[in-house]
């Protein structure tokens, strides 16, 4: 699961004249909870559930868990009930939450900046093998997720993670989620500015701080000083993107209000340049605006993107400056167009210190605990103590001497971790899907994996950058709206009129300075069985008809 799933929202009720209670904005004095989520957050801070997990639930078992903790506050510690096995996608929308709940959990480990030591990676792998039936998926927000977690084991898992400086704090819930960072921060030769000190300071100030643990909804953030724009900044609530200011030098361009899900919006630039040491203050200002002015009445209007859309960039910047920073921001330039389309850092690249980093592609983010442990061993055997995760469900080994690179590449490839992947292996992402996700309608991970095999076999000469993203439902955990080919899972009719698993097709989405959402191809739905044929036809035609320099999205 790459992002916290959300059940398709009910239609917005009509307001009755004279009975409008506002949007639940605290800054306007609306403190009365206007829905069940706001009520349980007011009743008790989500962070407080940890004590109950440690002292009651882990000892008395699953059935002892208070429903408001089970389907609410436990998310503040990265815990989400997983889908009971054997329930088909047609039942997702009709069953009650408790009928979908398994007694096992998904547990998300937050990896801010995607930065891990090999020791941390080894511990993550060991926990997976001991407590999670070997599961460990790399998400598209640099996290790692386990499945099959028992509540009884959670305190011990936390102890082991925290012993090596990792945590699951606010990995889900209406909280400041993982702070995405450039996976090559501090090492890339072409880096404009290293955002790592800002990631660390924001984490220290904000994560686990009860001033920011009751937000209207989730709050997603990204910081990158890479000219490759490698953190999907366009679809975060706040993002800091590396730019060179003509007078002030390297710093960050400030973006707010991006987000996907069922009402996608590309973030907007505020036209402000922020130096590295001021990023934590500006971050704090933006998240405070969200907390104070964010809409809390309807869950499907509670993301920052709706406030930004209503206010516009100018007013948002004004409020940020006047009420929160108490000073004006410096105007600044927009980031430049990246020189290459792939942003995942896959392959072998020279670092600024002369050593090399090696990026590799598992299949649709699916690894396992044993493989993660082997990656740690292989990295260490080649002189590295650091790895990174990317927002494309990929990984990178850092700090490798040139002489060690060929051997490292061979070792990774022998684990089916491709350093030189096909465009299909490289560009295909998939969300969790029906295997574990309670909101899913269709299978995604296995489908994505078999699709890669099929396309590699059918189109061996295809060598253009291409992104194929699969979602298991109308949510956007695998970013379907900004993929070249976005596939939204739903039930469709086959040739004989039977309801089967399939996908609504979106074509031509993109991130980058030409960011935009894929067009829903009217009426175009493919069954899962037809998927390889359909994509083969689309790509073969693109290959045959494209003009020089023409991208799929154009
Ligand atoms: Fe997200 Fe996929 Fe689950 Fe839908 S099925 S909520 S897109 S993880």
Automatic annotation (TrEMBL):
Catalytic activity: hydrogen sulfide + 6 oxidized [2Fe-2S]-[ferredoxin] + 3 H2O = sulfite + 6 reduced [2Fe-2S]-[ferredoxin] + 7 H(+)
Source species, domain of life: Bacteria
EC number: 1.8.7.1
Residue span(s) of domain Nitrite/sulphite reductase 4Fe-4S: 172-327, 426-554
Keywords of this entry: 4Fe-4S, Heme, Iron, Iron-sulfur, Metal-binding, Oxidoreductase, Thioether bond
Entry keyword Isomerase: no
Cofactor: siroheme; [4Fe-4S] cluster
Molecular function in Gene Ontology: 4 iron, 4 sulfur cluster binding; heme binding; metal ion binding; sulfite reductase (ferredoxin) activity
Uppermost EC category: oxidoreductase
Stated name of the protein: assimilatory sulfite reductase (ferredoxin)
């Amino acid at each position: 699961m790459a992002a916290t799933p959300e059940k398709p929202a009910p239609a917005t009720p009509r307001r009755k004249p004279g009975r409008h209670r506002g949007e639940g904005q605290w800054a306007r004095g609306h403190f009365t909870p206007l829905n069940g989520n706001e009520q349980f957050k007011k009743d008790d801070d989500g962070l407080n559930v940890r004590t109950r997990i440690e002292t009651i639930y882990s000892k008395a078992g699953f059935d002892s868990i208070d429903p408001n903790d089970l389907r609410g506050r436990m998310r503040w510690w990265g815990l989400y009930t997983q889908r009971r096995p054997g329930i088909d996608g047609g039942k997702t929308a009709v069953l009650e939450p408790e009928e979908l709940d398994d007694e096992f959990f998904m547990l998300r480990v937050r990896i801010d900046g995607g930065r891990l030591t090999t020791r941390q990676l080894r511990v993550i792998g060991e926990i997976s093998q001991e407590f999670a039936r070997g599961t460990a998926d790399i998400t598209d927000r640099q996290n790692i997720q386990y499945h099959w977690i028992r509540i009884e084991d959670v305190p011990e898992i936390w102890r082991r993670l925290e012993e090596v400086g990792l945590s699951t704090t606010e990995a889900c819930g209406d909280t400041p989620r993982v702070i995405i960072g450039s996976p090559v921060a501090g090492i890339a030769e072409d880096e404009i500015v290293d955002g790592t000190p800002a990631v660390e300071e924001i984490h220290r100030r904000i994560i686990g701080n009860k001033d920011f643990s009751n937000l209207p909804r989730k709050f997603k953030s990204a910081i990158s000083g890479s000219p490759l724009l490698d953190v999907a900044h366009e679809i975060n609530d706040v993002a800091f993107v590396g730019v060179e200011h003509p007078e002030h030098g390297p710093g960050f361009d400030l973006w707010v209000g991006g987000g996907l899900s069922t009402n996608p919006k590309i973030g907007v630039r505020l036209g402000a340049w922020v130096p590295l040491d001021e990023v934590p203050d500006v971050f704090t200002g933006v998240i405070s605006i969200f907390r104070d002015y964010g809409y809390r009445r309807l869950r499907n209007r509670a993301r920052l993107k709706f406030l930004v859309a209503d206010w516009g960039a100018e007013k948002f910047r004004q409020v940020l400056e006047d009420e929160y920073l108490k000073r004006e921001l410096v105007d600044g330039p927009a980031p430049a167009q990246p020189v290459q389309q792939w942003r995942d850092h896959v392959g072998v690249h020279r670092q600024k210190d002369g050593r090399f980093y090696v990026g590799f592609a598992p299949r649709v983010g699916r690894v396992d605990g044993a493989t993660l442990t082997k990656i740690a061993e292989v990295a260490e055997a080649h002189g590295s103590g650091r790895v990174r995760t990317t927002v494309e469900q990929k990984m990178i080994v850092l700090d490798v001497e040139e002489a060690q690179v060929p051997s490292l590449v061979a070792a990774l490839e022998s684990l089916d971790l491709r350093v030189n992947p096909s465009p299909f292996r490289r560009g295909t992402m998939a969300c969790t899907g029906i295997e574990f996700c309670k909101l899913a309608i269709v299978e995604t991970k296995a489908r994505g994996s078999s699709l890669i095999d099929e396309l590699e076999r059918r189109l061996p000469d295809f060598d253009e950058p291409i992104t194929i993203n699969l979602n298991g439902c109308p949510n956007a955990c695998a970013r379907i709206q900004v993929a070249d080919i976005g596939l939204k899972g739903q039930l469709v009719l086959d040739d004989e009129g039977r309801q089967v698993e399939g996908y609504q097709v979106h074509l031509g989405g993109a991130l980058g300075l030409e960011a935009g959402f894929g067009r829903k191809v009217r009426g175009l739905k493919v069954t899962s069985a037809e998927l390889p044929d359909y994509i083969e036809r689309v790509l073969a035609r693109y290959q045959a008809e494209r003009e020089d320099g023409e991208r799929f999205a154009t």
